[in-house]
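Encode chain A's predicted structure.
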Amino acid sequence: MHSVSAHDEEQRLAALHRLKLLDTPGEERFDRITRLACRALRMPIAAISLVDRDRLWFKSTHGLALSELPRPGTFCDAAMAVDEPFQVRDASADPRFAGLPMVVDKPFLRFYASHPLFAPDGRRLGGLCVLDTRPRELAEGELEILRDLARIVETELQVDVLAQARSELASDLDAARRQVYIDTLTQTWNRAGILEILQREHARARRTKSLIGIAMVDLDNFKTVNDTYGHLTGDRVLRAAAERMIEAVRPYDAVGRYGGEEFLIVLAERDVQRVAAIAERVRANIAQRPVSVDRRAIAISASVGVACSEAPLGQQDVHQLLQRADEALYSAKRSGRNKVVIAP
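Encoded structure for chain A:
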């Protein structure tokens, strides 16, 4: 458990309100997730709960006709104290919740579990919740399902906001000029494009007093691939690696070819461990299966250097952030390759 200062709570609420989702109509993209949560976990009730200052507001519910509740004393309010899954096995036997109206009266709730939902700056927005009218406990595999569904909710909650840098860049340029920012081989942003996005994200983070992270990814021993199989095969390996990076990151993260076999990923994320987790997912997605080219299976791997901007953001410019990531990448290569190193 941890306490939240008044300043942190105001920053959290600001992040929530920037999504512009409170008091909006229901949307199938969210209802689909709560229906799926009920089916996958065999629960009668599921909800996407956004925690406002004094209330819980439900973006979607399944099995419960309710749009909001007063915040104090609720399951979701208690869950906000931890940044991990939260379970109440039997609310009627838990003094914190035994007196709640929904426990002592219809629908006679007993079980509650939620997984946190985070804003792009790492601040807590609410949770994906599942509830039952009988006592129970989620097994490890069920918690993984809840986590995966929560990540899908986060994507839907954040995608419009976090794509801002790219949409701004696209809207600022006509079609001909946009082409200048695209790498024609990998169909990712090129060096100029990804650096432009990083500059914009850096400026946005400074305005909103949030932080950003970057991951610098370099394919290991790529020269050997070119020397052994030829440059055309090398190009196909580069395209496959780029596709796997895009698969591993979130839709609102930006992937760009920084130069040669080196890529830069810009992540609007303040928590270094969450940035590192995404970087590890990128590394694993590249290394776990060979690239198939003309009936040949070519094993590839990547080294990754991770850096997060430091607070206060104004004391660190983009060049310094890139330099720290590059030094971490060099450390990953020097210490054996195919690994993620986080800049101190």
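The chain has a mean pLDDT of 87.
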